[in-house]
Specification:
Blueprint: H1 13-29, E1 37-40, E2 47-49, H2 53-58, H3 65-69, H4 79-91, E3 99-101, H5 103-110, E4 116-120, H6 124-136, E5 143-146, H7 150-157, E6 165-169, H8 177-192, E7 197-203, H9 208-223, E8 228-234, E9 247-253, H10 259-274, E10 281-286
Parallel strand pairs: 1-4, 1-6, 4-5, 6-7
Antiparallel strand pairs: 2-3, 7-9, 8-9, 8-10
Helix pairs in contact: 1-4, 1-5, 7-8, 8-9
The protein binds S-adenosylmethionine.
Length: 287
């Protein structure tokens, strides 16, 4: 436990998929005036420097955000991807890609004054950095950071007072039990707050728990007659010689009706930009 630091992975292909969808969710959900509650159960440290020792060591952003960044402005055709890149440009106004936003920064940037952001982070170092980073935003009580288990913390947040909420569950899956805890958290949350929008990120790896998670989540959503959408991205053929994550997915419950069409447009383009060999591709299913 606690060997995972998101700084090693910031801006990789999995972050690109997750954060591009997060931007779309927040843009859509802030169209209505009523306050929106965003709960980020596994927040990380808020944002990252891609020139830090951590990020440089793995250089994962080179095959992630850096590939989109170096495209001339206006060349990205899909709005889901171009809106995401535009947001990252705000964080890097000099035109050089130095900062990469984590989910807390993205949520903060897109929330309005009536909205609230509830962050959970358990790693002692990342929790400290997150608290310092959030203090810099001068958001007052709009954003809270709690150094407690995000799965446990989520319970007390639901349902949100405004009955409008987005929950991002983005564990590091360092421990196998995270998969079961995600499914349990969704089952429990749907009982407390059936109309919430839920986004669960998961790695696609050679592990039974990982492969079963989307089906488990679709059953939980189906049992409550909730709509769902599952999108996954593979950037190359998995091989023993080349280590590292090649595939990840995002499972959404009660997604905005606009998301499917936005992804149908964006995913072929994303595969074209991030794909490294003929094994690259995407899947999009929904019900
Ligand atoms: N959501 C972040 C983003 O998109 O920028 C990235 C989060 S990273 C994948 C997962 C984070 O969860 C790590 O920072 C890890 O320390 C933290 N973590 C692991 N187990 C946790 C738990 N049970 N509760 C809260 N945080 C946890």
């Amino acid at each position: 436990m606690f060997s995972y630091r998101h700084a090693f992975h910031a801006g990789n292909h999995a972050d690109v998929l997750k954060h591009a969808v997060l931007v779309h969710l927040l843009q859509y959900m802030s169209r209505k005036e009523a306050a929106l509650y965003v709960v980020d159960t596994h927040a990380g440290s808020g944002w990252y420097r891609l020139d830090s020792d951590y990020a440089q060591k793995s250089a994962e952003s080179k095959d992630g955000i850096a590939r989109l960044w170096k495209l001339p402005e206006g060349q990205i055709k899909s709005s889901l991807l171009s809106d995401y890149v535009s947001l990252i440009r705000i964080l890097n106004p000099d035109g050089k890609l130095i900062f990469y936003p984590g989910s807390p920064w993205i949520s903060h940037r897109l929330l309005r004054k009536q909205d609230r952001l509830r962050l959970f982070e358990l790693h002692p170092t990342d929790q400290k950095i997150l608290t310092e980073n959030v203090a810099e935003l001068r958001a007052g009580r709009q954003i809270t950071v709690q150094a407690i288990d995000g799965f446990d913390g989520l319970k007390a947040q639901l349902p949100p007072p405004s009955r409008r909420g987005l929950v991002l569950i983005d564990p590091s899956y360092e421990i196998k039990t995270d998969y079961a805890r995600v499914a349990q958290a969704i089952a429990d949350s749907l009982k407390r707050f059936a109309t919430g929008t839920y986004a669960v990120w998961y790695p696609i790896i050679a592990l039974r728990e990982s492969q079963q998670l989307p089906e488990q989540l679709s059953k939980l959503a189906g049992a409550q007659n909730k709509s769902w959408l599952n999108v996954s991205l593979t950037v190359r053929t998995a091989s023993i010689e080349q280590r590292g994550l090649v595939s990840s997915g995002l499972f959404l419950i009660n997604p905005p009706y606009t998301l499917k069409a936005a992804l149908q447009e964006a995913m072929p383009e994303l595969v074209e930009i991030l794909g490294q060999d003929r094994g690259a591709g995407f899947e999009l299913t929904s019900a």
